[in-house]
Amino acid sequence: xxxxxxxxxxxxxxxxxxxxxxxxxxxxxxxxxxxxxxxxxxxxxxxxxxxxxxxxxxxxxxxxxxxxxxxxxxxxxxxxxxxxxxxxxxxxxxx
Length: 95
Description:
By secondary structure, the protein is mainly alpha-helical. 63% of the residues lie in helices and 0% in strands. The protein has six helices and no strands. Helix 5 (44-57) runs antiparallel to helix 6 (75-92). It is globular, with a radius of gyration of 14 Å. The N and C termini lie far apart (28 Å).
């Protein structure tokens, strides 16, 4: 599966339901560039989806969405960072 515009909208309809398709596709493209399928494996699409949502949250209609005011992190970014640590740790394990 590849992450599509509809996937982003379905993930958070309230936040991204009215965002332009071109903006969502740009975020997906940027997120895909930062993921290696060999590292992320079966979690690739979830990682791309979370990072795309994180990127969109900072640029949607000029207002931050799902942003923690104290840390300036998005809920999507926090979850993506957690997944990145899990994926990275698994990737480094030598059987």
